[in-house]
Amino acid sequence: MFFFQLLVVVVLLIAVGWVAVGGGGHLSQPIPDRPDPAVPDTGLLGREHVDKVRFSVGARGYRMDEVDDILDRLAYEIDVRDKRIADLERDPSDPARPAVQTPDEEPDGTQE
């Protein structure tokens, strides 16, 4: 009786091992379940790219409010940078050229 139980246990362990290494069939192709970050692989990023960014959430996740705050700040700073570059690239003899200034208001409406 003992040898029969031992044989059953050994056969079960072999069967589980065989299935675990893929002997029971082939795995299907993985299905992408992560959101597309919507960021182009090449070129400069702009505010419209930052506004479209979405992150996937893992098992422990992330603090969405912190990531959103950083993305808001990044989008604001990209806007400031782009406006400043546009002002600096204008013809200096153009009378309509405004003086280059950095805005005093943060994206959340508070003063610096």
Explain how this protein is built.
This protein is an all-alpha fold and 112 residues long. It has a domain at 34-91. Helix content is 46%, strand content 0%. It has three helices and no strands. The protein has helices at residues 2-20, 47-52, 64-89. The longest helix is centred in the last third of the chain and has 26 residues, at 64-89. The N and C termini lie far apart (83 Å). The model has no long low-confidence stretch (mean pLDDT 77). It comes from Actinospica durhamensis. Residues 103-112 have a biased composition (Acidic residues).
Give the topology, please:
Elements: H1 2-20, H2 47-52, H3 64-89
Name the features.
DivIVA_domain; 0% strand; 112 residues; mainly alpha; DivIVA domain-containing protein; rod-shaped; 3 helices; 46% helix
